[in-house]
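As the work plan foresaw, the team has encoded backbone shapes as discrete tokens. One protein thus recorded appears below exactly as we store it.

:::
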Amino acid sequence: MKNGDGYVIDSYEFNISNGEFNAEGIATNDNKSIQVYIETHMPNIPMKKGEELWVKGAFFNITPYLTLNLQKRGKLLVDYLMGDIVESLSGNWSVDNNQITISTEKFNNNTYQYNLNGETLHLIKNNVLGKDVPSNISPFADKINNIKYQAKYTVY
């Protein structure tokens, strides 16, 4: 809410498997109010068996690192994302056989495939399963045999 303007959602329903989000509430502005009803449907994309689909903008599903500062001699500084909280941490990094392992002072090691394309570092995790399947596709996990995530970082 800002300067008396805002909205209150009285109720909402988010059905991932049907791709529906419905909500209702009240929006206010300059001491005037209106009832708001929202009914949205995510597009249904037909896919063939074996087809690959990339979902962008979900880097937090593969890596908790908002920023990576890979320093000399394997030292590391990161902004570690925990939900909506960011914590600056130090740690180490190492490379072996096209894989990079990142170790921070408080959390488990993470190993990724990587490649450097121009000024972009790509971290890739393949065959994501179980608890690592994001909630937005978990209802369909039994129909998916491979999830591949890619996080992109700009090199400075």
Summary: The mean pLDDT is 80. The longest strand covers residues 85-96. The two ends are 37 Å apart (CA to CA). The chain has no helices and ten strands.
